[in-house]
């Protein structure tokens, strides 16, 4: 068994021998003793280089020192050459450089022979003193090969948990990847950028500046000159020796040396190279590196700049049309969260947030947390919390974890104290209106520079629930001069004596959402916080709090909120509609709540498709309900069974003279769905007396042929006011008949039903801030029509969706119970003002 080389020990030996040589020379020691010491030093250096693939302790190819005579002859030759060959003098004078250049040229020629398409590795170049690259911006050419992107830099940033400090910019004009520095300079080249990041954060966990670290980094860089196969072979041989008793090449944790060496091997996080079976140490190292979460995230960031996702061994479903990949997402490690406040019912705006969070959690095989943000006891109720759970089920969302911000109140309170003790928060008793004015004018509070002791005294007073403490609140000390108003010392803790619906009277002060959210997101392992673009200004506040409290950073993914015409989503305004009796409750079909729109007939799959179709957009647009319902209709049409009904009050009787009598009980069989035989058939009762819609027979004439849908052709033989007679023609021409009519046999056993249609709650498509919104409340939002329906309607259950032919699609809100409690059907809009040809509704249907 081969023993691993201890490079650190060799370096110490070389250092000690060098110091011994200096000591002997300065003390005028015996020449023999000096020569022996020098020879021992030379032997140690040579031994180090032999064990390190020819690379010396200084990171350069090892060359034995020249004797005095050799040096004198070399200097003489160089002097003679200078006069005639000035351009090559420097190279000739330095045999080490000459040998290195010769080796590089030889390697390049060999590489070109094996692969004419080989591109030489780009050199690391430091940019000029001034730069147009913004600080903390990383420019990447999305058209550049993967290995020319900053995988080492981004790996370092992820490992240090500072990746979110940097903005990745896709710049097709960028020749080489570069990083903007805080000093308004820039640095180019992956390794140089990585070292710059380490210096920016003064972090030595990945780079400890030891000779061993530098040795491995220089070695990895030198391998770039070799063809890919030779390079990989050299790495494998080196790893087999170095990793017999360790996992990483330097020390016991992953370091910059590992990253640079892995990059030299092609950074194979997506596909591991095929290695010799006996190379067990190298195989172990490659697997460890390829599966490391930070390296996978860096790979995703580098591929994502070109709008491509890294393909790891775990397969993913293709992105749904309209959706964008999550930046830096790694399969199995994505955690999203939906944090509703239990102060009202979920509405259509919340649907987008919860469906996007659920989609990403499922696609990346991660977890979805539903966290109730119960930080305001004045507005929260158990009723709302239960309704949210029910509505999530209606949407088909099953969270992996359900949690409560209130579970973290002790931790959040300690975090608030930590901010005070760090001088990053202070207590303020400035009246609310005055505070608002001071923030607008960027004027600091008189308490901003109070002592930690005073801040703690008032904080404890506030938390005690005392009357004196009620005037105080805790404010974060961020930046009162900022153009971003959310950074002007926001309130993050205030007193509230209302009993909490979960905690009772245990607490008398509560954190704001702005303080609680970044803390709990970090503690619960959230990887991506999806927030609407209206929170963009607050994103900086979110990041500031996580940095101030030294919390694990969370990536923010922004999306636009969904707004609809003629729709109010304010909880305060929706509450008014409920409490004033304009609607029957939060689940009324006119309400934009989840339960309201589903009751109206919104298909959940259609809703998901609609949300996904514009999920990646960050532009806030005003959506048209009619456009959505047109798409909704397409989904409903796939499975809605067909039935018929006629108006109970406005109908006429047609006598089919050769039709069957009521006593005969004759039926015709017809498919439940004209395009899907799997939905079965139903029997339709036929009879001499048939009920027709009055509007359908206007202008009808003797001799005219009409089609009774699902039965056949009837030729009209008599028209006398509202009395019609006709003769069934089994051989009649369906195509020749202009009127194709729905009808109902006038027999017992039909199903009485009430058709209900709705309109919007407000009459203006978009209300402006200065509008008196109550002036636009629609006074006519519901209308009903009694009909006589198919006997088969009695078989339907609540929530079934059907089509009444020539009328439209309906959702069963109440199944048929008896003649006193007839069936109630809710009309589902179809994306047009007229519900069906010839059948006008009673409302406008904007």
From TrEMBL:
EC class (word): ligase
GO molecular function list: ATP binding; glutamate-tRNA ligase activity; RNA binding
The enzyme's E.C. designation: 6.1.1.17
Cell compartments where the protein resides: Cytoplasm
Segments forming domain GST C-terminal: 191-319
Catalytic activity: tRNA(Glu) + L-glutamate + ATP = L-glutamyl-tRNA(Glu) + AMP + diphosphate
Coiled coil feature spans: none
Keyword Aminoacyl-tRNA synthetase among UniProt keywords: yes
SUPFAM superfamilies: GST C-terminal domain-like (SSF47616), Nucleotidylyl transferase (SSF52374), Ribosomal protein L25-like (SSF50715), S15/NS1 RNA-binding domain (SSF47060)
UniProt keyword terms in alphabetical order: Aminoacyl-tRNA synthetase, ATP-binding, Cytoplasm, Ligase, Nucleotide-binding, Phosphoprotein, Protein biosynthesis, RNA-binding
Pfam families: GST_C, tRNA-synt_1c, tRNA-synt_1c_C, tRNA-synt_1c_C2, WHEP-TRS
Compositional bias (Low complexity): 75-90
Gene3D superfamilies: 1.20.1050.130, HUPs, Ribosomal Protein L25, Chain P, S15/NS1, RNA-binding
Region entry Disordered, spans: 52-90
Record-level GO cellular component terms: aminoacyl-tRNA synthetase multienzyme complex; cytosol; methionyl glutamyl tRNA synthetase complex
Superkingdom in the source lineage: Eukaryota
One BP annotation, GO: glutamyl-tRNA aminoacylation
InterPro entries: aa-tRNA-synth_I_CS (IPR001412), Gln/Glu-tRNA_Ligase (IPR050132), Glu-tRNA-synth_arc/euk (IPR004526), Glu/Gln-tRNA-synth (IPR000924), Glu/Gln-tRNA-synth_Ib_cat-dom (IPR020058), Glu/Gln-tRNA-synth_Ib_codon-bd (IPR020059), Glutathione-S-Trfase_C-like (IPR010987), Glutathione-S-Trfase_C_sf (IPR036282)
Family membership noted in the UniProt record: Belongs to the class-I aminoacyl-tRNA synthetase family. Glutamate--tRNA ligase type 2 subfamily.
PANTHER family noted in UniProt: GLUTAMATE--TRNA LIGASE, GLUTAMINE-TRNA LIGASE
Name this protein carries in UniProt: glutamate--tRNA ligase
Organism: Fistulifera solaris (Oleaginous diatom)
């Amino acid at each position: 068994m081969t023993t691993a080389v201890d490079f650190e020990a060799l370096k110490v030996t070389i250092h000690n021998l060098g110091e011994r040589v200096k000591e002997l020379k300065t003390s005028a020691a015996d020449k023999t003793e000096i020569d022996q010491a020098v020879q021992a030093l030379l032997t140690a250096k040579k031994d180090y280089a032999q064990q390190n693939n020819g690379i010396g302790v200084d990171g350069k190819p090892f060359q034995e020192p020249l004797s005095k005579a050799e040096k004198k002859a070399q200097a003489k030759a160089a002097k003679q050459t200078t006069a005639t060959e000035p351009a090559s003098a420097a190279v000739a004078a330095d045999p080490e450089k000459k040998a290195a250049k010769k080796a590089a040229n030889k390697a390049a020629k060999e590489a070109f022979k094996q692969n004419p398409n080989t591109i030489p590795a780009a050199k690391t170049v430091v940019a000029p003193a001034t730069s147009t690259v913004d600080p903390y911006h990383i420019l990447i050419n999305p058209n550049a090969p993967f290995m020319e992107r900053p995988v080492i830099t981004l790996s370092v940033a992820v490992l240090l948990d500072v990746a979110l400090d940097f903005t990745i910019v896709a710049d097709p004009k960028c020749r080489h990847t570069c990083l903007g520095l805080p000093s308004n300079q820039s640095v180019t080249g992956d390794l140089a950028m990585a070292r710059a990041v380490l210096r920016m954060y003064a972090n030595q966990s990945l780079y400890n500046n030891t000779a061993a670290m530098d040795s491995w980094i220089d070695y990895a860089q030198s391998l770039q000159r070799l063809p890919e196969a030779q390079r990989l072979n050299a790495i494998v041989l080196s790893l087999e020796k170095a990793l017999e008793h360790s996992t990483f090449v330097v020390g016991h944790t992953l370091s910059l040396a590992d990253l640079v060496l892995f990059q030299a091997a092609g950074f194979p996080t997506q596909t591991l190279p095929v290695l010799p079976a006996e190379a067990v140490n190298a195989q172990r190292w490659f697997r460890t590196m390829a599966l490391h979460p930070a390296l996978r995230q860096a790979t995703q960031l580098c591929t994502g700049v070109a709008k491509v996702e890294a393909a790891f061994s775990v397969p993913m479903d293709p992105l749904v049309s309209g959706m964008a990949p999550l930046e830096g997402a790694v399969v199995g490690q994505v955690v999203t969260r939906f944090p509703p406040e239990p102060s009202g019912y979920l509405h259509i705006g919340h649907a987008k947030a919860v469906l996007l969070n659920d989609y990403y959690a499922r696609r990346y095989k991660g977890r979805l947390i539903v966290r109730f943000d119960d930080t305001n006891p004045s507005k929260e109720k158990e009723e709302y919390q239960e309704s949210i759970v029910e509505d999530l089920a209606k949407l088909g969302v099953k969270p992996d974890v359900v949690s409560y911000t209130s579970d973290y109140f002790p931790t959040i309170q300690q975090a608030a104290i930590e901010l005070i003790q760090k001088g990053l928060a202070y207590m303020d008793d400035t009246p609310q209106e005055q505070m608002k004015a001071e923030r607008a004018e960027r004027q600091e509070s008189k308490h901003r520079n109070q002592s930690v002791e005073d801040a703690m005294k008032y904080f404890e007073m506030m938390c005690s629930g005392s009357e004196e403490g009620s005037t105080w609140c805790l404010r974060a000390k961020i930046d009162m001069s900022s153009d971003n108003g959310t950074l002007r010392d926001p309130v993050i803790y205030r007193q509230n004596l209302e009993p909490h619906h979960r905690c009772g009277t245990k607490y008398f002060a509560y954190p704001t959402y702005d303080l609680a959210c970044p803390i709990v997101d970090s503690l619960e392992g959230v990887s991506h916080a999806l927030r609407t673009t209206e929170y963009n200004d607050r994103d900086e506040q979110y990041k500031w709090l996580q940095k101030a409290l030294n919390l694990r950073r969370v990536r923010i993914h922004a999306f636009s909120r969904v707004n609809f015409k003629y729709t109010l989503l304010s909880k305060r305004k929706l509450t008014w509609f409920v409490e004033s009796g304009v609607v029957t409750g939060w689940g009324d079909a006119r309400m934009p709540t989840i339960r309201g729109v589903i009751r109206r007939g919104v298909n959940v799959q259609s809703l998901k498709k609609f949300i996904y179709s514009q999920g990646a957009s960050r532009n806030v647009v005003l959506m048209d309900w009619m456009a959505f319902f047109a798409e909704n209709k397409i989904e409903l049409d796939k499975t809605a069974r067909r039935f018929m009904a006629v108006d109970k009050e406005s109908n006429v009787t047609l006598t089919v003279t050769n039709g069957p009598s009521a006593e005969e009980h004759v039926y015709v069989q017809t498919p439940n769905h004209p395009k899907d035989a799997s939905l079965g058939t139903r029997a339709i009762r036929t009879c001499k007396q048939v009920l027709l819609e009055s509007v359908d027979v206007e202008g009808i004439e003797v001799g005219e042929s009409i089609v009774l849908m699902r039965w056949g052709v009837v030729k009209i033989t008599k028209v006398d006011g509202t009395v019609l007679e006709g003769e069934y023609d089994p051989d009649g021409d369906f195509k020749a008949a202009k009127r194709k009519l729905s009808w109902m046999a006038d027999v017992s056993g039909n199903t009485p039903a009430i058709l209900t249609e709705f309109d919007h709650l407000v009459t203006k498509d978009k209300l402006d801030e200065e509008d008196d919104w109550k002036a636009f409340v629609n006074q006519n939002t519901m209308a009903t029509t009694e009909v006589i329906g198919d006997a088969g309607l009695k078989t339907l259950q609540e929530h079934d969706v059907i089509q009444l032919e020539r009328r439209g699609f309906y959702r069963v809100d109440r199944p048929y119970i008896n003649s006193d409690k007839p069936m109630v059907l809710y009309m589902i809009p179809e994306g047009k003002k007229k519900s069906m040809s010839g059948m006008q509704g009673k409302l406008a249907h904007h």
